[in-house]
Amino acid sequence: MSFEITAAQTEQYRSNILLLSQQKMSYLRATCQEESVVGRTFYGERIGATAGQDIEERHGDTPLISTPHSRRRGSMVDWDWSDRIDEMDKIKMIIDPQSTYVQNAIAAANRRIDKHVYGALGGAAAAGQSGGTTINNYDAGECRLVDADGTVATAGSNHTLVATETALTIAKLLTCKQLLDEGDIDPERQRHLATNPYNINQMLNTTEVKNADYNTVKALAQGQINTFMAFNFIMLQNYQDAIKGHLVDSPIETADTAVECYAWAQGAVKLGVGKEIQTSVDILPTKRYSVQVYMRHSFGAVRVEGPAVVEISLKKK
Question: How far, rounded to the nearest angstrom, does the alpha carbon of residue 192 sit from its chain's CA centroid?
C-alpha cells in the first residue's frame, strides 16, 4: 500500500482530526552521544586523565604512563506500537485518520527515547569489563546530588529528607554550575538542565532572568527561557502515566512534593541505537482488510560520565 498523500489531503485531515496536545519530539536525544548497536548490549568505553613526568636526566629511560581504561554497559530495549483502522469505520467517519495515527505513534516513540535518557541520568549504571558492577548515581566519584532545600549532599551519599522543598533559584543554578566545574567538566561542552513547567516559571519570575540588565535574552518577552548561565533549559512534564510525563517524584521527600531534575553536560549519556524509528502501514487481508499502522524501534541508554551529571530535587508545584 502506498503511503503517499497529497498536500490537499493533509490539510483535510488537519481540519477534521485534532491530535491532542502532547510531547511530539524527543527533547533529550540531542544531548547524548549516539552509537549504532548490533546485539543486546553496548559499551561506553572511557579513558581517564593522566600526568607526564619531568625529564631530569639525559639519555634516561622512556617512561611508561599507563592510561586508565573503564567501561559502562547499556542494554537495548525493543519497543513497538500498533493500531488498526477498520475499512467500514473509515466509511462512517468520512475522513481517513491514517496519517494522524502515524503522527501519534511517532510522538509516542520519541517520548520513549526520552524515558531511556532520563532514566540513565539518575539510574544505576553497569560498570566493569562485563558490566557486572553496579554504580549508583550517588556513589563516591559519580554524580553529585542537591537536596530539595538547596543543600549539597555529601559526596558518596544519597539525598536526605528536608523540612521544606524549594523551587529552582539562581542560587541553585549556581550550585549546579559549581558542581560541574568542580568535576572538571569542560566548559566548552553544552550544559543542559531539565525541569518541569513550575520551576521554569519560577526562574522566569526572578529579577536576573527577566531584567535585560542581567540577561541579554529577553525571556519574558518570548515567554520562555532557553539559555541562562550557559545552561540550555529543557522543559519536561511531571510523570503521570506511561503515556505522559518523565520527571519522577523524589523517593526521599514526601510523595508529590519534589521531583528529580538534572543538570548535565553534553555527552554524559550514551544512547545505543539498535533500530531507528520504523513505520509500516499495511492492509491486513485476514482482518477484513483493515489498515494497520505499526511502529517499532530499539534503543538503550547508559550514563558514561557521572561527574558530568548533577541530580537536583526541586519543589514539584
Answer: 10
Domain extent, residue 245, equals 151-268+305-315
Given a contact cutoff of 8 angstroms between Cβ atoms, the answer to whether 304 and 34 are in contact is no
Q: Which residues does 61 contact at the CB level (< 8 Å), separation at least 6?
A: none
Question: Which segments within the chain are labelled E, that is strand?
Answer: 33-36, 41-47, 69-75, 77-85, 125-127, 133-135, 144-146, 191-195, 227-228, 231-235, 258-265, 269-284, 290-303, 309-315
SS3 of residue 259 by DSSP: strand
Tell me, yes or no, whether 165 lies in a domain. Answer: yes
Could you give the CA distance from residue 113 to residue 297 in angstroms, rounded to a whole number? 9
Residue-wise pLDDT for 274-302, tens only, equals: 999 999 889 999 998 888 989 999 999 99
Phi first, then psi: what are they for 267, rounded to 5°?
85, 5
> Is 66 inside a domain boundary?
no
pLDDT one-digit tens code per residue, 160-204: 888 889 999 999 999 999 999 999 999 999 999 999 999 999 988
Residue 221 scores a pLDDT above 60? no
Q: Which grid cell is 24?
A: 511530539
Pairing of strands 69-75, 125-127: antiparallel
